[in-house]
Write a structure and sequence with these properties.
The chain is an alpha+beta fold and 152 residues long. Helix content is 29%, strand content 43%.
């Protein structure tokens, strides 16, 4: 594995039942409503679309996401990614106390030329950029699900 390869995991404890959380996460085209860093999702068809994201660093990432698994009984949503990143991402939604634990796993190889050139010196910043994006997404989803004190 090279410097442009990343594995990420985020755990979100959410104040809603798993079925509700799964239903929100399944509607990816609505992510920009509650997740600031998801700038646009343009559907190609029922299972794929183009995604543009941007966190605090001044660059956009654009890639195609294609659904590879939708399993509401198991609480799993998985996509294959291609474009500025190549790899996969998966949500796994399970009951957690009176709410839900949403686990996000992602494994990608960065293909965007500038980011590949800056892979070694930029790696800590790129990881921090991703962590910031995930914290913001968690806050936005918690607000959407009705947790007091959270702003979308």
């Amino acid at each position: 594995m090279g410097w442009s390869h990343y594995r990420f995991r985020s755990l979100w404890v959410l104040p809603a039942p798993p079925g509700t959380v799964y239903a929100v996460l399944e509607r990816a085209e609505e992510y920009p409503r509650w997740w600031r860093q998801v700038r646009a999702i343009d559907r190609f068809d029922a299972t794929s679309g183009q995604v543009t994201i941007r966190s605090f660093l001044p660059y956009d990432m654009t890639f195609t996401a294609r659904a590879t698994r939708r399993d509401p009984d198991a609480g799993v949503l998985e996509v294959a990614l291609s474009g500025d990143v190549e790899g996969w991402a998966r949500w796994t939604v399970t009951a957690h106390g009176t709410g839900t634990l949403a686990r996000y796993d992602q494994e990608v190889e960065v293909r965007k030329t500038l980011l590949r050139r800056l892979a070694v010196p930029g790696r800590p910043l790129f990881r921090a950029n991703h962590a910031h994006m995930m914290r913001s997404g968690r806050r936005g989803l918690r607000a959407l699900l009705g947790e007091p004190g959270q702003a979308v």
